[in-house]
From TrEMBL:
Name of the molecule in the record: Aldehyde dehydrogenase
Domain of life of the source: Archaea
Keywords: Oxidoreductase
Region described as Disordered: spans on this chain: 1-20
GO MF, any single term: oxidoreductase activity, acting on the aldehyde or oxo group of donors, NAD or NADP as acceptor
Similarity-based family: Belongs to the aldehyde dehydrogenase family.
All residue ranges annotated as the Aldehyde dehydrogenase domain in the record: 39-495
Residues annotated as the enzyme's active site: E268
Self-association state and partner proteins as the record states: Homotetramer.
């Protein structure tokens, strides 16, 4: 096939998939149970062919106002009086509607983000699993009675905040939306959720699929940009709780805005997570974990294992195997089931990764493989980059300390357990960490010594809704997922009831 014809073929394939995924759909805001058009729109792009998929509403401060008002009306009108079993039933009904559209949602996610279709489908299923966890959790919420003696009945109640503001990033759109909506709704709140302007499609569709199931105004989705839409949401006095997932710099700003009206915040921020290969590790196992940890989702993952620390006794063999594993990734059309790595999500992200590849080389790191665009002419218009491996890296280099958010692995060596821990913890971040070893002693000691909210041993992933997820240090405050997330969306009230001696 000639260069022209192969690039035309992929364009045609994507044009037809885009039409299938978006025809007869309005990608506008979703406010008060209906589609809500705004004056301004922004395009969302398919990063494989760099073409517009569709245009999406941009909400401004007045639209944010309408969404917050609709959410309060829903809360005060119906949702606050809905019993936990009834909330659970409604959430399961919504989940059934989502289950009926898994293929549609996976296709939308694949086109909007560039993720391989198999990963997109798994993430849609992960989102549904998360919602199922919280739909069940509705019915198991308990409070406590505090023993005080016979003259006082002292107990606690958990109450929702009312209306919560939630903001998600572009890298895991539907999954992140489920992490936010699941616990917020289960706890009895109504939500105003702002997805990223880069990848808003599945979040909007998810809300549309709640039509005639959830009461109007329980879920409101306000697509738009950070400044125009996100700013007014977190600044809004009637938003009683803010949950944000994104970068550290924006998280800091969000926290300051929420502080202006004393709204509590949950922050899920960036990372620079280490994976430590001890000398007794099973090399095949740890190569897989370290590769999955940085190359899944083209490295656009908050908890990516972007720093491998390998013991010097096994470093050369590990590096040799890791470099050949990096070369095995199948870069291709994400619509093909065989593709294991798609493009980066946007031109901006592509430029960022290209810059870091240059920065690493300028500072003396050795580029062992990757960093170029693939030679396949079919991929010429997409934001593809071949998986990168750097060695001869140290902690003074920006590639070892800054979040790149792309398929760039940096490998450093260590000589002792203490050195490994020092290197691993020498970062402002603390989202995740990985350990590769066959020794139970090392597993438990390192799991305790690592400053991270999540530790994987001999693997990367999975993420289960059952367990709290969130970072230490500048990787965040509070948790998404697990019972902890539910607690973040509830306030506790203590009730003192005087019990006089009974007189008949
Ligand atoms: P970002 O911080 O640029 O944007 C995140 C969201 O905030 C977007 O919806 C954006 O529109 C919005 N936003 C931007 N400026 C705002 C403002 N002034 N006020 C309110 N909202 C604003 O992050 P991103 O580029 O979308 O996502 C990548 C980042 O997210 C990475 O740092 C990654 O590590 C992090 N992330 C963290 C987790 C986690 O669970 N810890 C998960 C996924 C992504």
């Amino acid at each position: 096939m000639t260069e022209k014809s192969s690039s035309e073929a992929i364009r045609e394939r994507h044009a037809s998939a885009q039409a299938r995924a978006t025809d007869d759909r309005a990608f506008a805001a979703w406010i008060d149970g209906e589609t809500y058009e705004t004056d301004e729109t922004v395009s969302t792009y398919d990063p494989v062919v760099d073409e517009q998929i569709t245009s999406v509403s941009v909400c401004d401060a007045s639209d944010v106002e309408a969404a917050v008002e609709a959410a309060w009306d829903a809360y005060e009108g119906e949702w606050n009086g809905t019993s936990p079993p009834e909330r659970s039933r409604l959430l399961f009904e919504w989940i059934d509607a989502l289950k009926g559209q898994v293929d549609e949602l996976a296709l939308l996610e694949c086109l909007d983000t560039g993720k391989p279709i198999t990963d997109a489908r798994a993430e849609v299923e992960g989102a549904i699993d998360t919602l199922e966890y919280y739909a069940s959790a509705c019915r198991t919420q308990t409070s406590k009675t505090i023993e005080t003696g016979d003259n006082l009945h002292l107990y606690t109640r958990h109450e929702p905040y009312g209306v919560v503001g939630q903001i998600t990033p572009w890298n895991f759109p539907i999954w992140a939306a489920a992490w936010k909506l699941g616990p917020a709704l289960a706890a009895g709140n109504c939500s105003v959720l702002k997805p990223s302007a880069t990848t808003p499609l599945t979040t909007i569709r998810m809300a549309q699929l709640s039509r005639d199931i959830l009461p109007e105004g329980v879920i409101n989705v306000i697509p738009g940009t950070g400044r125009k839409t996100g700013g007014p949401l977190v600044e809004h006095d009637d938003v009683r709780k803010v949950s944000f997932t994104g970068s550290v710099s924006v998280g800091e700003h969000v926290m300051k805005s929420a502080a202006e009206h004393i709204a509590p915040v949950t922050l899920e921020l960036g990372g620079k997570s280490p994976f430590i290969v001890f000398p007794d590790a099973d090399l095949e196992t740890v190569v897989t974990a370290a590769a999955d940890g940085i190359y899944y989702s083209t490295g656009e993952i908050c908890d990516a294992f972007s720093r491998v620390l390998v013991h010097e006794d096994v470093a050369s063999e590990f590096i040799e195997r890791f470099v050949s594993r990096a070369k095995e990734y199948v870069l291709g059309d994400p619509l093909n089931e065989e593709t294991t790595m798609g493009p980066l999500t946007s031109e901006e992200q592509f430029e960022t990764v290209a810059d870091y590849v240059d920065i690493g080389q300028e500072k003396g790191a050795t580029l062992r493989t990757g960093g170029d665009r693939p030679s396949d002419p079919e991929l010429a218009d997409g934001w593809y980059v071949e998986p990168v491996v750097f060695t001869d890296v140290d902690n003074d280099m920006r590639i070892a300390t800054e979040e790149i958010f792309g398929p760039v692995q940096t490998i450093q060596t260590f000589g002792s357990y203490e050195e490994a821990m020092k290197l691993a913890n020498d970062t402002e971040f603390g989202l995740a960490a990985g350990i590769g070893t066959e020794s139970t002693d090392i597993v438990h000691r390192a799991a305790a010594d690592l400053e991270a909210g999540l530790v994987y041993v001999n693997e990367y992933g999975p993420i289960l809704p059952d367990a709290p997820y969130g970072g230490f240090k500048q990787s965040g405050i509070g948790k998404d997922l697990g019972g902890e997330a539910l607690d973040h969306y509830r306030q506790t009230k203590s009730v003192y009831v005087n019990l006089d001696d009974p007189t008949l």
